Amino acid sequence: MASLEGSVFSSVVQAPEDPILGVTVAYNKDPSPVKVNLGVGAYRTEEGKPLVLNVVRRAEQLLVNDLSRVKEYLPITGLADFNKLSAKLIFGSDSPAIQENRVATVQCLSGTGSLRVGGEFLARHYHERTIYIPQPTWGNHTKVFTLAGLSVKTYRYYDPATRGLDFEGLLADLSVAPPGAIVLLHACAHNPTGVDPTLDQYEQIRLLMRSKGLLPFFDSAYQGFASGNLDADAQSVRLFVADGGECLTAQSYAKNMGLYGERVGALSIVCKSADVTVRVESQLKLVIRPMYSNPPIHGASIVATILKDREMYEEWTIELKAMADRIINMRQLLFEALRTRGTPGDWGHIIKQIGMFTFTGLNREQVAFMTKEYHIYMTSDGRISMAGLRSQTVPHLADAIHAAVTQIQ
Amino acid sequence: MAAIGRGILRRGIVGLPAVGSGSAARSMASWFGHVEPAAKDPILGVTEAFLADPSPEKVNVGVGAYRDDNGKPVVLECVREAERRIAGRLNMEYLPMGGSIKMIEESLKLAYGDDSEFIKDKRIAAVQALSGTGACRLFADFQKRFLPDSQIYIPIPTWSNHHNIWRDANVPQRTFRYYHPDTKGLDFASMMDDIKNAPNGSFFLLHACAHNPTGVDPSEEQWREISYQFKVKKHFPFFDMAYQGFASGDPEKDAKAIRIFLEDGHQIGCAQSYAKNMGLYGQRAGCLSILCEDELQAVAVKSQLQQIARPMYSNPPVHGALVVSTILGDPELKSLWLKEVKSMADRIIGMRNALRENLEKLGSPLSWEHITNQIGMFCYSGMTPEQVDRLTNEFHIYMTRNGRISMAGVTTGNVGYLANAIHEVTKSS
């Protein structure tokens, strides 16, 4: 039957395709047998398949078989065990901040949800509304913080000339940030560049930030996935917490536990005192309740099951290291393949960069060429997901890069 | 000289105290020292108090989560079976931003009807949402973004979180009269007045069935009149449907209000939740849908809803969605679910009858008809906050101070005790 009137939403226009997810859409459409998907950052095995960790399967079975488990609402702040264990994971189980009850941790929907809830809290309760994000950064950061009510500025980070860190630029930009401004730091395995400051550089960043009262907000999406060692990948965060100062941390279990679609994460706010911490946690609830009331139970239960069991935790660290090692191996293979071909340029950054992504330094035209002629799918900023590479596809990628670099400037 | 030089260097750029490793940070005050403690959530605070009470007689009729006749939470058989099938699956990859296509398809069939022409014509923009709360919030944010001058009319009373949701979305709120404290039923005349007096094209929040907290629903006739008046006024109807199947025991029946509006040509919005009717509470499984003019517009609206979800949580959780689509997509499991939903609804209806009978047998001077007239999980008893406090302090009975009783917490074991206590605190009113 005919509807009454035009819709009140008839002026709504279609939103543009997400640039990262659009890569997979294009890849799926391509019939070529040699196509390679180096777009989205989800881990793939040597066989090119997604991976559910064995320890996760075991945890899930335990949960399914435990008939005493119910599906009741979690508290607004989420699963208590999960929160405590997550804080220990990132800050260290002997962290004085935890022992002094100075950490407010709330379960959130993976990294995105943790960043959003943290951003909203800051927009309501913090005196400075500006957040500085690195140039470049994950494509969703700007939107998350803008919608949370913060104003977004950038600081220099990646140096295209060296394909490494623009440390001088970073310090210079943070030096002129207004006192109290919030600064987003990738805890490890910077997305999209794979370029991380050294610990010495982090120490200098810490001194500068503390002298200006800049508030650190860590995005930790790859703990354990970067170096293969959970503690090593948390050093940047722990450096800051050790000086007794305040900070925020967003944790994700999407990659390091392979729990992508379960949306498991945690936001922690480290405060100066236990009293402040209690009040901060109560205010976090007011952000969460009108957003989704309370977080989903399934993924957090899996994480808590694993983290609290000595043997399962060990098994997890082994599987995690295996994923990280495979990626490091792909880096090595690609680097050697380019060297063997005599591909012009310095490709050392492939093995220097860390984590799931490599910022190749290839330009838009070269990327478009590689897609068209070699069926290589990647984001137009030159980022490749190493997790999507396999030993048998490395030669093809190396050929593509070689051709692009020699034929297109 | 050198020492002074070092001192100046260490003092940093803006003349703040010397920065050693730790000293400056330790000496600074907290950035969050001014943060006030937030008020406790009125509903969730009740269960906290209940848990803290050591009395063996205590009764929790506060939070709206279903309990069986032994007062225990329930996991539906169809859910356990679905989870057995899901565990050990191939991957836990990200869902698309808009969520599980299968779950959305099944949800639309449930709300709009299996044979809905709107589904066939692809006119419904729909995304998976974080249960009912998440669906309402996505809609509120969408409303703000695309109709920034609009406001929302909310019934008096309503679920308290509705106010929080539209407030955080920065959509101004108005109210419309709904509950009549004297009859403990619908104040239909006032409701119609408020609908007529609202400016044309206003947005209204309607509870599709089993109104929370009152349990008072318009009759089918009344819904038709409301729908007609909405046509005249060109109002936008947004349905919050959190109890489909749970109210009467029959999901088709519980969707009647929505179907009436659809027949009358309204382009509705709808929030669906599987928290109660599938017992999936903590899984946060729900769906938001908006009926559009045509397929093209539905595609556009869906893409914009996704743009709101992306900076909030990127994509919704997969587990609950899989449970829903596994159950609704399998005829046997769906049939089992329908049986289980009906038995939950029947148990509640049985408890309503029992509570009323008990109160009448006790010789209460008041009328308790409303207990059986009202529908769904909640009964708006009509008790005052002071009477509720007496129930808690003298009888260890826990409920929200607006007099709302969660019938799901009533059992054959405690209905007599509950009736006695209510009689005690109300017999002299």
From TrEMBL, chain A:
Organism expressing this protein natively:
Zingiber officinale
Describe the protein's quaternary organization and the partners it interacts with: Homodimer.
Q: Name one GO cellular component term.
A: mitochondrion
Q: Which CDD domains match?
A: AAT_like
Keyword Transferase in the entry? The reply is yes
Q: What class of enzyme is it?
A: transferase
Q: What is this protein called?
A: aspartate transaminase
Tell me the NCBIfam families matching this sequence.
Answer: PRK09257.1
Q: What range(s) does the Aminotransferase class I/classII large domain occupy?
A: 35-401
GO MF annotations for this entry? L-aspartate:2-oxoglutarate aminotransferase activity; pyridoxal phosphate binding
Q: Name one Pfam family in it.
A: Aminotran_1_2
Which cofactors, by name?
pyridoxal 5'-phosphate
Q: What family classification does the UniProt entry report for this protein? A: Belongs to the class-I pyridoxal-phosphate-dependent aminotransferase family.
Automatic annotation (TrEMBL), chain B:
Q: Which catalysed reactions does the entry list for this protein?
A: L-aspartate + 2-oxoglutarate = oxaloacetate + L-glutamate
> What is one GO cellular-component annotation here?
mitochondrion
Q: Which domain of life is it from?
A: Eukaryota
Q: Which cofactor does it need?
A: pyridoxal 5'-phosphate
Q: Which top EC class applies here?
A: transferase
> Which GO MF term does the entry hold, naming one?
pyridoxal phosphate binding
Name a single GO biological process: amino acid metabolic process
**Coiled coil region boundaries:** none
Keywords on record: Aminotransferase, Pyridoxal phosphate, Transferase
Might you give the EC number(s) for this enzyme? 2.6.1.1
Domain Aminotransferase class I/classII large, first and last residues per copy: 57-422
Report the InterPro entries cross-referenced here. Aminotransferase_I/II_large, Asp_trans, NHTrfase_class1_PyrdxlP-BS
Give the family, as the similarity comment puts it: Belongs to the class-I pyridoxal-phosphate-dependent aminotransferase family.
The record's section on NCBIfam families has: PRK09257.1
Q: How does it assemble?
A: Homodimer.
PANTHER family annotated for this entry?
ASPARTATE AMINOTRANSFERASE, ASPARTATE AMINOTRANSFERASE, MITOCHONDRIAL
> What protein is this chain from?
aspartate transaminase
Q: Which organism is it from?
A: Zingiber officinale
